[in-house]
Amino acid sequence: MIEKKTTALVIGAGPGGYVCAIRLGQLGISTILVEKKHYGGTCLNEGCIPSKALINVAKRKEVIESAAEFGMTATFGGIDLVKVQEWKRGVVGGLSDGVKQLCKAVNVETIDGAASFISQNKVLVKTVSEEYEITADKIVIASGSEVIQVPGFAFDGEDIISPAHALSLDKLPARLAVIGGGYIGLELGMVYAGFGSEVTVIEMMDELLPGFDKDLVRPVTMKLKKMGVSIRTKSRALGYEKTAEGLKLSYEWKGKPQELLCDKILVSVGRRPYADGLNISAAGLASAAKGFIPVNNKMETSVAGIYAIGDITGNPMLAHRASRQGEVLAEILAGHNVCYDNKVVPSVVFTDPQIAGVGPQESELTEAGRGILVGRFPFGASGMANASGHPEGFVKVVADAATKQILSVYIVGHGAADLIGEAGLAVERGMKLEDVYNTIHAHPTFSESLAEACMAAEGRAVHIVNR
Predict the structure, then answer these.
(1) 293 and 264 share a domain?
(2) pTM of the prediction?
(3) Most buried of the four, 52, 107, 358, 401, by CB within 10 Å?
(4) Is 128 in the same domain as 86?
């Protein structure tokens, strides 16, 4: 047993934990960062980054195949998934190694092992060859989340695959069934449909992407159908069996039993907080509803000296929320008078087209009886969108009817993920419609559409007929 003492111990090197540890190191605080699997966490290694890498490959294929629309002649020679995976692993590996190098640069000690609480201020860390007993003044739980499994569809990595498995396939499945029409299921479903798989999406709710307003989902649904993806909403997966023809998936569609032959079944129905093996009860800590650990705006748990950040603390379970919490907590532990008081967290769905949003949705505000102004600007009226060959989608701005303060912005279309940054700033800082449209936006750009949507909310848009 190796005994260590430190000021701060961070458990989990995902986008919350490693950011917290690096900032602590920058602030001169003695810090140990423990990670049992991947530096960078699920997001960097099995989620955000590898999925975007594959999405990029699928998009490039589509660009080549649509070259004739732009007066070009191009021939697509096919996809070598083995080489695609080699390239993807290089991207991920470089970034993951970079996390450890950044920690080293600010004197953060890293230990590769699994952590579990011994007491309120002591943690046992087991590595491949050693055991550490670490005593820390402050302990940060940044253990993240894991995929939810569906009864009867246990992951085996071969027939029944998780999103992580789907990101590592080196052979294209001819027929892919996707259980779950949320953002991860649709992102990966579109990737493999783009690669050439026959894809069927099975979603229990009435609509794809549950939780998003229907007008935002409609362009994505249209693209899915254009790609030949079969959509089964109001459906429930029941079970499967192996046959000579492939996997026979049994499901219920609109109350009627159905069967589907496929080669792989991707299950993507959400994530749950992960605290397995941490033995938090030994520290006097208990999780609350659905396994989350409650915290206040200083990320303090119910036990003095123990903090939590990221997915383990509740929704939205997003990497950038975790990173922000990690930054703020590091400042708090350094004695700075700050707290986590962000008003909004942007969300992005990397389907094609993308959906990005910040703030409450139009339907939520309407149902709450809030007086609002809504401005929409279609990318079909944007010079840059048309010149780029991406006229689908729109920008929607929702503002308070009395004060004209921007309450939310939702964008569906090409580059929505990048455009939401300015929108997030506007909502976070309480800006009004005029603050955005009186700011000169470069022409021709997609960002002009945000200014036009703000103008449309007041009935003064220039490049569309105001309603």
Answers:
(1) no
(2) 0.94
(3) 358
(4) yes
